[in-house]
Amino acid sequence: MALPEAGFYDMYEGRAAGEPAQVLAANPPAAESDLTMADARELLLGVTRSDSAAALKAGPELPIEREGRQRLWRVLLAAVALLLLVETIVANRGWRGTASVVLPAPPERSIP
After folding, report:
1. 26: which DSSP letter?
2. In the chain, how many domains are there?
3. Does 16 or 26 have the greater pLDDT score?
4. Nearest-CA neighbor of 8 among 28, 38, 29?
5. What is the reported pTM?
6. Does the residue 16 lie in any domain?
7. How many CA atoms, within 13 angstroms, populate the side-chain half-sphere of residue 35?
8. How far apart are the first and last CA of the chain?
9. What is the rounded distance in angstroms from the CA atom of residue 87 to the CA atom of residue 78?
């Protein structure tokens, strides 16, 4: 079977539903088939070294330390919840709670 376009093709057994039986890559770009050795410096561009000895000495983080870092977020969440509560109370009072003038009923219309 000749596959004219580059890409991935799913092969199914019987009908095209569910998981494919096999996935094939057809006509890959020639640059992907280049087997020349890569420069080691290019491979290590984004790699940094860390002091693994210091990380091992520090050990796992204690739960009390983790909770201490979350204190600021808890205070901010409580402040936002309080602000939303105050906003709800102020919005519900609005003009309905402060009206003091009663308008007379509209006059009856007479049908000729």
Report:
1. E
2. 1
3. 26
4. 28
5. 0.34
6. yes
7. 0
8. 90
9. 14
